[in-house]
């Protein structure tokens, strides 16, 4: 597979992030263990009652969202490239006496490891930027959905990824439809900017057109595309908190979040 070295670099970085993230206030693992859901309003509203639904969670990190859905009565499977992430997810699943399953693999290889079909395929917040091409990703989604099932993504808006955040103030540096990989190397992580770890990451920008077209070409019917000013996470510089506890640009020059729901006929 092309880009194997880049994927391996990313996997190693995510492996190093797991322990830092598990200790961070950002992921608030102690509150999660006590029963607090890691899910946000966007995905809760979109997915509704998931009781007894089969959910495939792509790029699940160490499984908090997967396990949150499991607590809501869903039958969940989480997939992630990081073996350290999947190891912790399995530990949490056992500790919390839940019945989720977790598989360590590149998301683009999901169908090699999972043959089951699901009512819902879900992914969220910082996932598609790790993929060089969305066509095989969309094909995996189509393959793993039952007829009548749906795919849902809530993700940071592609305009936000046009900026280089390793400099201050952020500089608009990358193309909206840039095909070349973006390499960044920096100290820390979004969950703990003071951490000593060095993040080495390859990423790719994807336009909304590419997201929509890839899903449609894979046989999914687009139900909606929505864009929002407000992010549940304060991860970009200069955001202000609104009266609902969400984070926005003070000038609201561009949206920070988009969501897509698509149905497999």
Automatic annotation (TrEMBL):
SUPFAM superfamilies: S-adenosyl-L-methionine-dependent methyltransferases (SSF53335). Residues 57-153 form the Methyltransferase type domain. GO terms for biological process: methylation. GO terms for molecular function: methyltransferase activity. Pfam families: Methyltransf_11 (PF08241). The keyword Methyltransferase applies. Keywords: Methyltransferase, Transferase. The keyword Calcium does not apply. CDD domains: AdoMet_MTases. Transmembrane segments: none annotated. This is Class I SAM-dependent methyltransferase. It comes from Aequorivita iocasae. The lineage of its organism: Bacteria, Pseudomonadati, Bacteroidota, Flavobacteriia, Flavobacteriales.
């Amino acid at each position: 597979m092309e880009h194997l070295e880049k994927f391996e670099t990313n996997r190693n970085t995510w492996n190093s992030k797991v322990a830092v993230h598990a200790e961070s206030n950002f992921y608030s693992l102690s509150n999660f263990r006590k029963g607090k859901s890691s899910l946000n309003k966007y995905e809760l509203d979109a997915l509704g009652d998931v009781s007894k639904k089969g959910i495939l969670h792509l790029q699940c990190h160490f499984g908090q969202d997967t396990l949150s859905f499991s607590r809501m009565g869903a039958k969940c499977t989480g997939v992630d490239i990081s073996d350290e992430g999947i190891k912790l997810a399995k530990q949490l699943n056992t500790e919390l006496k839940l019945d989720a399953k977790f598989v360590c693999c590149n998301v683009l290889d999901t169908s090699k490891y999972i043959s089951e079909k699901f009512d819902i395929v879900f992914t969220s917040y910082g996932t598609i930027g790790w993929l060089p091409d969305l066509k095989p990703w969309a094909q995996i989604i189509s393959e793993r959905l039952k007829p009548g099932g749906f795919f849902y993504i809530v993700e940071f808006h592609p305009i936000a990824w046009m900026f280089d955040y390793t400099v201050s103030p952020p500089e608009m540096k990358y193309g909206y439809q840039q095909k070349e990989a973006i390499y960044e190397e920096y100290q820390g992580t979004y969950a703990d900017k003071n951490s000593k770890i060095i993040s080495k990451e390859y990423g790719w920008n994807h336009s909304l057109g590419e997201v929509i077209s890839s899903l449609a070409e894979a046989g999914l019917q687009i139900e909606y595309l929505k864009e929002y000013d407000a992010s549940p996470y304060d991860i970009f510089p200069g955001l202000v908190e609104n009266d609902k506890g969400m984070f926005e640009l003070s000038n609201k020059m561009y949206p920070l979040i988009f969501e897509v729901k698509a149905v497999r006929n």
